[in-house]
Amino acid sequence: MEHREGNKTHCRAGFLLRAAFVLLAFILAAVIKLPAQVRGYSYEIYRESVRTYTDYQTRNLVTLESDHIKVKFQYKDDRYAGMVLEASERFYLPIAQKYGLQTENKITVLVYPSREELNASFGWPASENAMGVYWAGVIRVLSPASWVEDADPEEMLDAFTNIGPMAHEMTHLAVDYATRGNCPRWFTEGLAQLEEYNLTGFRFATDSDPGDNFYSLKDMDNNFDDLPDQALAYRESLSAVEYINSVYGEQKLLALVDSLGQGKGMGQSLENVLGVDIATFEQNWRSWSYF
């Protein structure tokens, strides 16, 4: 009898959380035209509500925690959860310090045993090839067991740390919090790749030779995931951020993040921080680019 009542309580709580999530989605849509600071606060409420709901949905998973990270996983990945936790903590501190990341709750990292299960959590087709995804305050990653071939624990940890998704996705999380969700897609992808390279030496391989067929910044912001040449889109994103970092310096790069966090658009941020409009920025970047 107590067991049934407990199930009813879980169902009732789940229903209320789903209802709250839907309500918050409507609120977010309703305030989208309000002043930037209001949009920022609304986004933060939305993100934290989704994060809380995700934590509730995954309450039955096994949990392993450290000072800043909470890894949730299925029993079958018990051997690998420690690797995920160690890699997460390794990248948390330098990224958090650089982008001023402060959260009231530990960062949740969900581990998926297979690519199919990771894709299914977003309703993606099985053909999607992501190793990690950040969305709404939560990082989702593939278990090392699903893609690291070496059976030696130390080698697996090294592979997961240095060619796995943790540095990349941790940067996405930090940038999302710093900008309060107000960040062009090309900019956050470029920053994530830059930090990944700085921290691990890993860089996405690309055989793309675009010639004169570059993607514009507008295309990469509005239509990133549907661009036919994904390797080129990622490479251009990194190139644009590397241009800012190399020509203007890291402090200007971080000042752009801060400006976005204040609710300013990318065009206004470029003018205020770099002294150029977005069209001039894109032209100067193309002239500098090593493509």
The low-confidence parts are 1-17
At the fold tier of CATH, the topology name of the largest domain is Neutral Protease, domain 2
Query: How much is the average pLDDT?
Result: 85
Q: What class do helices, strands and sheet pairing give?
A: alpha/beta
CATH architecture of the largest domain: Orthogonal Bundle
The named CATH superfamily of the largest domain: Neutral Protease Domain 2
Q: Tell me, briefly, the overall form.
A: globular
Report helical residue fraction.
55-70%
Number of domains: 3
Query: What about the largest sheet?
Result: 5 strands, mixed
Terminus-to-terminus distance = 68 Å
CATH class of the largest domain: Mainly Alpha
Order of helices and strands: HHEEHEHEEHHHHHHHH
What does this structure look like?
With 291 residues, this protein is α/β, with parallel strands linked by helices. It folds into 3 domains: 1-59; 61-176, Neutral Protease, domain 2; 180-288, no CATH class. Helices cover 60% and strands 8% of the residues. It has 12 helices and 5 strands. It has helices spanning 2-30, 36-57, 78-99, 115-120, 153-163, 166-179, 185-200, 217-222, 230-247, 250-261, 266-274, 278-288; strands at residues 62-65, 69-73, 107-112, 132-135, 138-142. Strands 1-2-3-5-4 form a 5-stranded mixed β-sheet, sandwiched between helices. Strand 1 (62-65) and strand 2 form a beta hairpin. Helix 6 (166-179) packs across helix 10, helix 9 packs across helix 10 and helix 10 crosses helix 11 (266-274). The chain is globular and about 55 Å long. 33% of the residues are buried.
